[in-house]
Every structure is written in C-alpha cells, then in structure tokens.
C-alpha cells in the first residue's frame, strides 16, 4: 500500500476540533475557513479554529430560552458574529478581544419569509439570502441598527456560494434556472442566467451544484447522470458576453454512485465514494469536441486513492490507526477542504506532482499539464531534462518537437505581452506600466539552456535536439540568445557540420553578435568556413576594427589595408602596426606596397613622405632601405 | 564553307608500370583500354609513350607532376589517382576546314580544350569509379597476383565501358573543376523543417548515416563531403532520375492509378525491387572523415522531392526496413515537397524581375563560388542542370578556367583581375574571404571604368550580408 503511487494527499497537520456528538454541533464557514465546535448550544463553549490550527477563538454564549444554532459565521475581521437560530431571523453579536458582548446584540428579523443563509461580503456588510431574494445589510452595532443597502427580489429555491470572487448562484424556477450573482459591498451584480436543459439536467438539487474559479473564470459545475447511469460533471464557464454562462466541458466520470469534488490548482478532483478513488480532470487539456464546441474529458489518469495516513485515536490512548478515507461523514468545501466531523479533523487536499509525472505517460500531455500548474516549473524542467537525457531515444524527436512547441507558445505569448506593455506605455512615469501577468509556468530559452541542454552537451544527438528547439523558437518568432547560439555553434563545430553552421548564421537563426563571432574565431583553426562565417557576421555588425585585427593576424596585410582605407578614420591608422605585419609576412612585395602606401599618406597629410617620430617607424624605414637599397632622403 | 568538328575522345586507358617490366610482356601494364577493339600493339605503344613522357617529366617535377601533353591535333591528359596507377585520356582537338586562296585546309583548335577542365573530367572519371566500386586498390583482391589483376581489370571494364559513353566532353567547364553545386535557395523555416526531418529519419533509423535532399533535381541539403556529393549528384540527376522518368513514362496509363497512389505517399527509386523502382539499392563508397566506407544508396521520391539515404552496409536492407521507412517518410516528404512548391509559387509571382532565361546575352553574367562550401550561384549556367549549350562562348568559359587557379593555396586573400577578351568580352574576377566572383560583360564600347562600374553594380546587387571587399 505504501509503495503504490498516490498523487493526492491530505494535509499532514489537520485542524482538530471536537467531533460531533450529542453535545457538540460543528459548523464550517468557508469564507473564513473557520470551524465552529458548539458545545451544548454554546453554553459550555464555542471553539472557533481556522484557517490554521493556531487561529483559535474560544468563548461561551448563554443559550437560555433560545433555539439551537442553525448557522454561525464571523465577519471577516472577527468583530461581529452572525448567528441564525430561527427561520426568519439573524442575530449579530459584537466581539471585543475575542469575547462576545452579549448585551449589545442586534437582531434582524424578516417578516414572513425563510432565510436560507447569509454571507459576509464586507467587514460590516452581510448578504442575507431568503426565499424572496437577496438583500445586503449594513450592520451598525453602535446604532443598534441593521440597514438595508441593496436588494433584489426573486423567488429563490436554494443558493450556493463561492467565497472566491464573492460569487453566488441563486436557483429559481424550482431549480430549473440558475442565476449567478456577484455580491459585493453595496452592490449586487446579476449576471446572465443559466437555463438548464430539461429533462436531463434539471431540476438540479443544491448538493449537485459546485461553484468555483477555474483558470480565472467562474464556473458552475453540475453533477449529473448520463443515459447509461454513469456520472458526468457538466461545466458552465462564465466567459460569454457579459460573463454569460456557456456549457463548455463535460467530465466523464465512468462510475456511478456518490461523488464529491474539490478544485485544486485549477484541477478538478472528483472523489468517488464507492470505489474510494479520486479522478483528476484538467479542462485545459484537449478532449473530444462535439459540434456544439463542448469538450468531453476523460480523467487524466485512472482513479487513484488518496494517500493513506495514520490518525491518533484518543479513545485508544496514544495508539494510531489508518484514517478512514472517503468516509460517509466527509463533507467537502471548495476549493480544497475536507472535513470529517466524526473524527474532528479538517484537512486541506494537495496534489503531489512527481507521482503524476510517472502516471501521465503521454509526454506532450504531461508538458501541457505541468505548464498550467502553479509550481510546475521545477518539475517540468526535471521532466524535460530526463527526456533528453536518461530517457532519450531517437523515436522521441517528433514528440520533443511537439513539446518544444508547447513551451514556446507560452514563451512567445509572454514575450509579446511584455513587448506590448512596453510599447503601449511610453516612458510616462505617472502611471506605472501595468505589467502583464506572467504565465504560471514559463520555460524560456535560458532555462532550457541552463537546465536541460547544458547537462547533455557534447553527445552524439545533442545537435539534433538543439536544432529541433531552434526550429521551434523560429516558428514562434523568438530569436535565439547568445548562450544558446553559442552552444548550437559548438555542437555543429564538434560534428564538423560547418555548412549547416554557415546556413544557420545566414538565415539569422543564430543571431549575429560579437560574442558568437569571437567564439567562432576561437575555433577558426579547425576549418576555414568558420572564419569565413565569423567574418560575415563581423561585417554585418560593422565591427571593422575586429576585422582588421583578424586580417592582420592572418597575414592578410593588403586585405586589411584595403578595408582600413574604406573607413572614415583611415588617416589615423597606425603605420607601425601594418608595417610590422607586412614585415612578418616575409614577402618583400607586400612590405613594399604597404610602405609606399604610408609614404603617400604622409605626403597627403604632411606634405612629405617621411614618417615622424610619433609613428615609431624607424626600424621599418631602415628595413626598407636594407632590402630595396633605396636611400631615404633625409 | 567552313565546318567544325567538335572534340572527341581518342582513347582512355589505365596502366600500372609495376607490371610487365620485361620486354614482350608490356601488355601486362594495361588494366583498361578504350576503345577495346584496337590492336594490342597500338595499346602497348600508347602506354609506352606515356610512360616515357611521365618518366621524362619526373626529372623536373614531383611524381605526379605530369599533367598534360598538348599537340597540334590532340591533348593528352594524365592523372595519378592512386600509387602507380595512371589514368590517361587523349582527346582529338576540334577542327575546322577553312579555305584560303582556293585551297582547303584544316585548322586544329587545340586551344579550345582547356587542360584544367579536362583534367577535372579525368579526375571525375576516377571519382565515379570510386563511388561505385571503391578504390583501385580495394578491387585489387584475390588469391593470386594474377587473380587480383584479373579482378581489377574486370571491374574497370564493366564500369568504364559504360561510363565513357555518358561523358559529355563539350559541356564541361569550370564547374567541373571546382566541383561546386548550385543549391536551391530556401526560406529559413523550410530549411529547418528539412533539417529536422532528416535528423528524425537518422535518429529513427540508426542504420541511415547520411542524407541528401533534392527538390526538382536541385540540391537542397547534403551531409556528404563536397567531392563525393558532386559525383552522387551527377549520378542522381544525370542517370538515375532520367531512368526513373523513363520508367514512369513507359508505365503510361496502365499505371496511372497506381502512380497516383504512389505520388501521394512517395515511392522508392532504388531500394526494394518493384516495377516502379530502378532495382536494388546500389552499394556506394563515400568518404567519412578520412576513411572510405561503403553504404547502400536508397533513393526515395515523393512528388518532386527526392531523398537519397546512405544506409550502412553491414547487411542488405530488409523488406521490413523499407516498409517502415516508407511509412515514416512518405507523408512528411510529400508535405515538405508541396510546401517548397508553394513557397516557390509565391516568390515567383512576387519577384518577376528574376534573372531568367530571357536575358539577352549582352547583359552581364556572373558566377559566385564559395570555395569552402563548394556552392555557387550565378547566371553563367542559366539552367541548374547545365544544358548542353553554355550561355557563354567557349573562349570565355576557358578564360574563367584560366583565372581559376586550382593550384593556389586557399587563404581567402583579396585579389582582383580584369581581362579583356575577344569579341568585346570582359571578365572581372574578385576574390575575398574565400569567395570568388566572376562577372562577364559583353560591351563593344566599354572602357575599363565602365566595366568596373558594371561589375560593382553586380557586386552590390548580389553580394549582400557577407564580408567581401567590393
């Protein structure tokens, strides 16, 4: 059991609370992620814990003559506690130093309707959802007053709430229509409604609807059974015009029975109680698409159980036993909360990426998957590294081509977003340029170079992988940077593919840079093509100084002089340097020509062919008269 | 009336002076002689004369110093490809009958046969043999000395008796000397696509060691060293593709449906034996580093793109190998071929001012050779496959061969030469950074300055993006 691969686990340090019993009731507020353990209706104490074990508020509340608590929630700053005990009334208890001020309670009572629940939308504002609509109230304890700020009237059957983005869905029309709303301070924004398809989808009961945010978009997830009795989750994304809901995804669960879901890192985890396994879905991955543009998804991998773990059992002293997973006592909250009130534990659900990498065998899908994960970069780099290293075989090249394209789509979008934000906002310092949001995982060429390619340098197949990557970069209009260019050049030289090297430079696939040219020159003794290519680069860069140095070092003094002559500062070039190089060639004709050239220059500049002291050319004047026996008129 | 008789091959022979040293056994020196139907005595005499010339020349030069002997009516070319093996080719000079003072006489034009060019032709004859059979030494095998000699003789006979028939002496020129090839220019994404396609073939089929990619008989990509490439290219475009075309035509309507299928997926030209192909993949010998290695040459074509694969020769490729290869390459090669076609269709409409066949002979022509990669571009040969009629008069192409000094050491130095030739032809040659540029201008009123300007204009136009002292 320990050896099996588990990619879902519950947090190691769950929040502990008094388990449900005859005396104790437990409530959970998913906005503040607080667990309320209410003993004896509050008389013997209420312990509030969350979002971590260290946040504890503990107090007592007299419940004489009062109904039992139906719902209980703190305001976001924990300064007001809202409690509902009867159908049509909510009471507000101010708190000071985490203790209730029981004589300053304000009560709101509605006339003749049923309050389904309430959510805090701001520190002093609460939205109360009742059978006849939604109303936002300002709770003013000092004035002992609850003041209506905004309301809408609607015959509501039930409602669902998503604390992320203050997003709620109100079921009307007997559960056939879902009305998404955004509840904020003083405002209620109604979004286009969602009419369920009859008879398959609706009417839908409250427990089958889950709200969440997936990839930054509000989503309504509805659990259904398909015609063959298997479970399906239909996902409406609120990304149409005016955030109109659109049916876009269907998750095929392949099981029947009871399901519950969590949303972790934009992945949908569907727990199946009967098989005690969880299925993982990613709506960003491709699936079958039907004519209506709805994508049908299969689980990313076959269902696996949550990683088992041991739990201390107080009744057995210090003994431990395996915690019961997928228990019928489990209650799930979004995005990733699992509560088992029978053992008094609240966990956060996490995904383990490494086992997933082993389970997703399709490399391209794995890369797509990891590109969307919050902490995917490190793992993705490892996956890429293994692919080019220990797992490499020739058949993988077409897959790598695909993988590189996936990486570079993200990379090039990011580059153009950056470019746009720079060009859209010229240096006006007033409003700080709004930086585009970086992608979740960005693997740029420097990452590839440093983490993926460098470890495989100088292998037989490295050049082929690099060219493949270069192709993908070019396809996405990304220039190769000097480090990568240099590595490609090095591999090409090592494999003696000088012709290809020259071609790549010609096509500007390896960008001209002095760095690249100098790197090539340092290998020029291997093959003249390398020198030729380097000279071409330098010419395009107009790096004539370097060209002159190279020509001189190759003993091509005449060539160098011809280049120098065409430059604007040709009259200031050092005669000594050229004469020295000319002498070194050992060819008297060359020396003669160079010498005469400089004599002419001297004449043009100073009216006399002679060198001046500053030229430091005495030794060459002597050398000249020595080999040509001509007396210098002095 | 004047008539001209073009040059012709008088004889072609290979001998080795280490054999038949004794008097009366001289015929043993001869390993191959063309024409075969000549009497032995003449053969022996020809060889003897050559030996004498070589021997005499060696007093003054190194052992392979003897290159050519030009006489009024003939030009005899010598080439020492391997130790002790001499190849000799004798050409009859072209001649013209002329009339002066009512008397007919014959004028021999020995000068029209450029020694450098025909030495290159002879060298090519050797390299073609080496491509298909390996070196002479590799074929000099057997139990006994006599058997060795006999084996080599047989090989030479089989190869050269056919090869000599295909030599087109008249259309040889400077490019035979340089052994450079004009590549098909491609846009960069296509270049990369082809590059990675070949990489994938080689990684998927490790037995495939080298590839050559052609489109419409034009070279696109090669991993073979330039000198081997030149021979392979000549074989592919000059022989194999011609034959394949004939087979296709012969198939006619009967195979229409079949070849439609074939054109979509591609088919083997050499490889598995089928009615479509030109038979089994031949064995070829190609240099790899400093060794000569043998490979099977598998040629595959889809649409107008062909790919020549050198498969290592441990064992003949199996049917399975071919069918896997076929299913791997077929779809991709077809798609690449149509992409190249599209890209050319686009550029052809976008660039009507392309220098094409219609240019009149007065407009300047150029030839641009990269000495290092042995690639050239230019308008000297209008058609890439070199039609039999060169666009320039013979004396101009010979002049270019004069200017191309194959003996010089490659240093890529700057050089400029301007030559005024007959009939108002000018040739400007410039060399820089291992690139050679020839411009040919025909202008009857030009001054040196005009020609320089004309050449400069072409340099500006054609030499972009590279370091070249203009």
Automatic annotation (TrEMBL), chain A:
Q: Which GO terms describe its biological process?
A: regulation of autophagy
The Regulator of MON1-CCZ1 complex N-terminal domain extends over 26-145
Q: Which SUPFAM superfamilies match?
A: Tricorn protease domain 2 (SSF69322)
Show the GO cellular component annotation of the record. late endosome membrane; lysosomal membrane; Mon1-Ccz1 complex
Source domain of life is Eukaryota
- List each copy of the Mic1 domain by range: 373-612
> Coiled-coil region(s) at which residues?
none
Stored Gene3D superfamilies: YVTN repeat-like/Quinoprotein amine dehydrogenase
Protein's UniProt name: Mic1 domain-containing protein
Q: What's the source species for this entry? A: Hermetia illucens
Automatic annotation (TrEMBL), chain B:
Name all CCZ1/INTU second Longin domain ranges. 208-330
Biological process (GO) annotations held by this record are: vesicle-mediated transport
Please give the GO cellular component terms listed in this UniProt entry: Mon1-Ccz1 complex
* The CCZ1/INTU/HSP4 first Longin domain, residue ranges: 9-134
Q: Which domain of life is it from?
A: Eukaryota
Record-linked InterPro entries: Ccz1, CCZ1/INTU/HSP4_longin_1, CCZ1/INTU/HSP4_longin_3, CCZ1/INTU_longin_2
| Domain CCZ1/INTU/HPS4 third Longin residues, every copy | 363-458
Q: Which family does it belong to?
A: Belongs to the CCZ1 family.
Name assigned to this protein: Vacuolar fusion protein CCZ1 homolog
Species, as recorded: Hermetia illucens (Black soldier fly)
């Amino acid at each position: 059991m320990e050896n099996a691969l588990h990619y879902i686990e519950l947090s190691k340090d769950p929040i502990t609370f008094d388990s449900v019993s005859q005396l104790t009731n437990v409530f959970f507020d998913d906005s503040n992620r607080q667990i309320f353990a209410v003993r004896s209706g509050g008389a013997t104490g209420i312990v509030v814990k969350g979002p971590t074990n260290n946040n504890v508020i503990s107090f007592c509340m007299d419940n004489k003559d009062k109904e039992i608590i139906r719902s209980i929630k703190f305001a976001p700053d924990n300064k007001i506690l809202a409690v509902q005990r009867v159908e049509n009334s909510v009471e507000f208890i101010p708190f000071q130093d985490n203790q209730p001020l029981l004589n300053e309670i304000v009560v709101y009572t509605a006339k003749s309707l049923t309050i389904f629940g309430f959510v805090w939308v701001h520190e002093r504002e609460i939205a109360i959802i009742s059978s006849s609509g939604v109303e936002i109230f300002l709770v003013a304890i000092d004035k002992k007053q609850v003041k209506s700020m905004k309301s809408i009237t609607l015959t509501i059957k039930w409602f669902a709430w998503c604390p992320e983005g203050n997003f709620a869905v109100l079921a009307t029309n007997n559960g056939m229509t879902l009305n998404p709303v955004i509840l904020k301070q003083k405002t209620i924004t109604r979004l286009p409604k969602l009419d369920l398809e009859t008879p398959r989808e609706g009417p839908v009961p409250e427990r089958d609807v889950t709200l969440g945010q997936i990839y930054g978009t509000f989503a309504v997830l509805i659990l259904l059974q398909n015609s063959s009795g298997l479970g399906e989750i239909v996902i409406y994304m609120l990304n149409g015009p005016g955030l109109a809901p659109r049916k876009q995804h269907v998750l095929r669960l392949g099981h029947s029975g009871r399901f519950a879901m969590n949303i972790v890192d934009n992945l949908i985890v569907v727990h199946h109680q009967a098989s005690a396994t969880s299925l993982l879905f990613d709506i960003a991955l491709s699936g079958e698409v039907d004519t209506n543009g709805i994508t049908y998804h299969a689980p990313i991998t076959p269902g696996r159980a949550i990683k088992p773990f041991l739990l201390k059992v107080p009744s057995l002293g210090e003994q431990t036993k395996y915690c019961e997973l997928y228990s019928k006592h489990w209650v799930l909250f979004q995005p990733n909360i699992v509560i088992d009130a029978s053992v008094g534990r609240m966990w956060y659900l996490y995904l383990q990426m490494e086992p997933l990498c082993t389970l997703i065998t399709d490399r391209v899908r794995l890369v797509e998957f990891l590109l969307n994960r919050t902490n995917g970069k490190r793992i993705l780099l490892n996956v890429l590294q293994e692919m080019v290293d220990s797992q490499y075989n020739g058949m993988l090249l077409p897959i790598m081509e695909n993988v590189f394209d996936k990486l570079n789509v993200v990379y090039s979008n990011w580059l153009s977003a950056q470019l746009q934000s720079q060009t859209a906002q010229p240096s006006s310092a007033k409003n700080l340029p709004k930086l585009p949001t970086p992608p979740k995982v960005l693997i740029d060429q420097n990452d590839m170079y440093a983490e993926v390619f460098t470890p495989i340098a100088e292998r037989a197949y490295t050049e082929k992988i690099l060219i493949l990557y270069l192709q993908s970069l070019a396809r996405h209009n990304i220039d190769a940077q000097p480090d990568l260019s240099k590595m490609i050049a090095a591999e090409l030289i090592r494999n003696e593919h000088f012709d290809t090297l020259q071609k790549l430079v010609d096509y500007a696939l390896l960008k001209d840079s002095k760095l690249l040219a100098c790197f090539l020159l340092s290998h020029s003794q291997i093959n003249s093509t390398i020198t030729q290519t380097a000279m071409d680069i330098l010419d395009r860069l107009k790096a004539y100084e370097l060209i002159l140095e190279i020509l001189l070092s190759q003993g091509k003094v005449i060539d160098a002089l011809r280049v120098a002559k065409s430059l604007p500062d040709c009259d200031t070039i050092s005669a000594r340097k050229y004469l020295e190089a000319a002498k070194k060639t050992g060819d008297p004709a060359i020396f003669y020509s160079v010498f005469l050239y400089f004599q002419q220059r001297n004449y043009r500049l100073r009216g006399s062919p002679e060198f001046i002291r500053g030229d430091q050319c005495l030794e060459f004047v002597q050398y000249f008269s020595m080999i040509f026996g001509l007396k210098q008129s002095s | 009336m004047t008539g001209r008789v073009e040059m012709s091959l008088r004889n072609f022979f290979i001998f080795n002076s280490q054999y038949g040293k004794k008097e009366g056994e001289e015929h043993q020196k001869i390993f191959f002689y063309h024409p075969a139907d000549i009497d032995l005595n003449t053969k022996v005499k020809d060889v003897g004369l050559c030996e004498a010339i070589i021997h005499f020349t060696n007093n003054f030069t190194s052992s392979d110093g003897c290159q050519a002997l030009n006489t009024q009516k003939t030009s005899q070319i010598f080439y020492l490809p391997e130790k002790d093996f001499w190849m000799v080719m004798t050409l009859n000079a072209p001649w013209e009958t002329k009339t002066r003072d009512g008397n007919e006489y014959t004028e021999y034009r020995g000068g029209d046969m450029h020694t450098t060019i025909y030495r290159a032709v002879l060298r090519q004859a050797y390299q073609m043999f080496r491509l298909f059979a390996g070196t002479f030494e590799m074929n000099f095998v057997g139990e006994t000395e006599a058997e060795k000699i006999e084996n080599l003789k047989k090989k030479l006979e089989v190869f050269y008796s056919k090869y000599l028939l295909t030599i087109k002496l008249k259309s040889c020129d400077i490019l035979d000397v340089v052994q450079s090839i004009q590549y098909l220019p491609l846009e960069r994404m296509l270049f990369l696509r082809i590059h990675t396609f070949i990489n994938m073939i080689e990684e998927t089929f490790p037995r495939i060691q080298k590839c050559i990619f052609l489109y419409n008989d034009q070279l696109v990509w090669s991993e073979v060293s330039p000198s081997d490439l030149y021979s392979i290219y000549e074989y592919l475009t000059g022989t194999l593709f011609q034959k394949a075309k004939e087979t296709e035509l012969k198939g006619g309507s009967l195979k229409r449906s079949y070849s439609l299928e074939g054109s979509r997926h591609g088919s083997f030209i050499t490889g598995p034996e089928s009615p479509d192909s030109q038979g089994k993949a031949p064995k070829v010998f190609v240099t790899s580093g400093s060794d000569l290695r043998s490979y099977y040459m598998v040629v595959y074509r889809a649409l107008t793109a062909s790919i020549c694969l050198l498969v290592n020769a441990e064992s003949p490729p199996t049917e399975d190998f071919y069918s896997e290869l076929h299913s791997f390459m077929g779809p991709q090669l077809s798609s690449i071929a149509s992409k190249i076609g599209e890209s050319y269709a686009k550029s052809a409409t976008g660039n009507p001012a392309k220098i094409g066949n219609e240019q009149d002979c007065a407009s300047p022509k150029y030839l641009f050779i990269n000495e290092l990669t042995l690639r050239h571009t230019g308008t000297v040969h209008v058609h890439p496959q070199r039609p039999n009629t060169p666009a320039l008069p013979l004396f101009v192409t010979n002049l270019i061969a004069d200017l191309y000094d194959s003996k010089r050491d490659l240093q890529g130095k700057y050089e400029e030469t301007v030559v005024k030739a007959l009939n108002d032809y000018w040739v400007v040659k410039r060399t820089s950074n291992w690139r050679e540029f020839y411009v040919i201008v025909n202008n009857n009123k030009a001054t040196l300055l005009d020609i320089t300007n004309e050449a400069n204009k072409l340099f500006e136009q054609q030499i972009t993006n590279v370091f070249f002292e203009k």
